[in-house]
Amino acid sequence: MQMLIINGQSQQVDVAPDMPLLWVLRDVLGLTGTKYGCGIAQCGVCTVHLDGQPIRSCVTPISAVAGRAITTIEAIGETVVGQAVQQAWLAHEVVQCGYCQSGQIMAATALLQRQPKPDDQAIDAAMAGNLCRCATYTRIRTAIHSVGQVEEA
Fold first, then answer.
1. Contact present, 84 and 147 (Cβ < 8 Å)
2. 75-147: CATH homologous superfamily?
3. Domain at 1-73: CATH code
4. What is the pTM of this model?
5. Which letter does DSSP use for residue 8 in this model?
6. Average pLDDT per run of 10 along the chain, which is 153 residues long?
7. pLDDT for the residue numbered 149
8. How far apart are CA 151 and CA 17, in angstroms?
9. What separation in angstroms does the CA of 95 have from each of 33, 47, 86, 153?
């Protein structure tokens, strides 16, 4: 049995300790907002927060996250920054196919929580490895900058 803290709620799961967090979230707990992309931590689609830091859930064993705070896309809008990022994504029409967007939003939110007004270099570094096949990178950058500008007002 593993004790997890997911989106502020304690959850007990009876799974193998090497089971990836992604599959626990999706298949055991029914939190399907976190997507499967590559399975080797290269695309960023499966990004969640672990103690506020973005991680790739597809390669993170459940034993490594027991008792730590896990936040998924389902709860990111409950934070001020997460809600602002989601609103910016809509305002700047970031989403095309949408498959990568939960990972993109999780990475952007983590960046803005630690650096409220990032420059292009900081955005590129934080978002590196979050792939978008629709190539909405310019919109993503614009949306991230707009959240920083809102924080100023």
1. yes
2. [2Fe-2S]-binding domain (1.10.150.120)
3. 3.10.20.30
4. 0.93
5. T
6. 95 96 98 96 97 97 96 97 97 93 97 96 95 93 87 46
7. 64
8. 41
9. 15, 17, 11, 26
